[in-house]
Amino acid sequence: MYAQMVKSEATTEAPELLAGFQARIDAGEKIEPKDWMPEGYRKTLIRQIGQHAHSEIVGQLPEGNWITRAPTLERKAILLAKVQDEAGHGLYLYCAAETLGVSRDELTEALLSGRMKYSSIFNYPTLNWADIGAVGWLVDGAAIMNQVPLQRTSFGPYSRAMIRICKEESFHQRQGYDIMMKMAQGTPEQKAMAQDALNRFWYPSLMMFGPSDKDSVHSAQSMAWKIKINTNDELRQKFVDQTVPQAEYLGLTIPDPELRWNEEKGGHDFSEPDWSEFFEVIKGNGPCNAERMEARQKAWDEGAWFREGLMAHARKRAAAKVAAE
Amino acid sequence: MSNEWPLWEIFIRGQHGLNHRHVGSLHAPDAEMAVKHARDVYTRRNEGVSIWVVPSASITASSPSDKGPLFEPSNSKVYRHPTFFDIPEDVGKM
Hints:
The complex is a heterodimer of chains A (325) and B (94).
Chain A: H1 15-26, H2 39-58, H3 60-64, H4 73-98, H5 104-112, H6 129-150, H7 156-184, H8 188-207, H9 219-224, H10 232-250, E1 260-262, E2 267-269, H11 275-285, H12 289-302, H13 304-324
Helix pairs in contact in A: 2-4, 4-7, 6-7, 6-8, 6-10
Chain B: E1 7-13, E2 21-27, H1 31-42, E3 50-55, H2 67-71
Antiparallel strand pairs in B: 1-2, 1-3
């Protein structure tokens, strides 16, 4: 998902404290920043929310790539609004992470040094306009799968950020599907572009949910703490079942010869993505990892004079105001 | 000295004359910029007609450990709710 393979931190507090904390979570209470919480809960959440925030921010890059080349002024305005939303979502999430005692600069520096990750999906390129449709339809569609249940997560600030995000996110998926419909109903060349975009984004989208449950070692503690609500495989299955009829409507073929309805389980059977590719992308060897990090580093470095200048101005004005009083 | 912009808490009044409501926080160098940022971050869909910004450092919050002493006393005072009193139907609406 936007947070993949988030390692649960061990926790060493007294068993009775941990039991009391777990009881609050089991009773459906929200944990707020000033409440007592196990160190492992705090650290795991910083990692997960931070990774989620970084994904929103880095996720602006593949789409921002097409703002100046959108085919109409209306599409351009819509894409600009969507990318602006992603920035907003990143900010909501950074603030939620900061309530846990980490600073914004620390989070940014952890991303830039590679200590913190962002979703693997944003290391794939957006080669043409159909890719912008596929990203909205599939990538935002997959994100929503995970974000809707996270509205019920146990940590209050994270839950509230998720509620805001979910309200805005369905516009993102619909605008992507709208692009795909236009392309799929267009000339044979346009339809072929839509099919090609689906071919390239299908498996990377399935990877967004993280490795299969049987290989996912971090799930149990996070699920008990309600910072993960569904397993990776549950969400992936749901995503496939939701997306298949949408592809059929477009007249596009999902690039999986093994894909078929399984009456018995009431869901589709489908092929696993190539997990070795996933682990390579996570390690930094995806098609765009270097480019994405370069863009973030450049924005951070070249924005330094601006951040510092505004701060200096604010201090000067505050001092002048004190002097005048 | 840290150059990280300080944190502000953002309150927005919606369309219908309700109170300003806390919607979240953001970083900004000063109050003026905080209002501008709040416009972009929290009112992209016409959510508000008025914005308040308050430095987070200026907020004094009750402590979670005071929850009992602060709020439990009102638990036993159910007579503060109108439904505590049975008014005979014959009296009519009250």
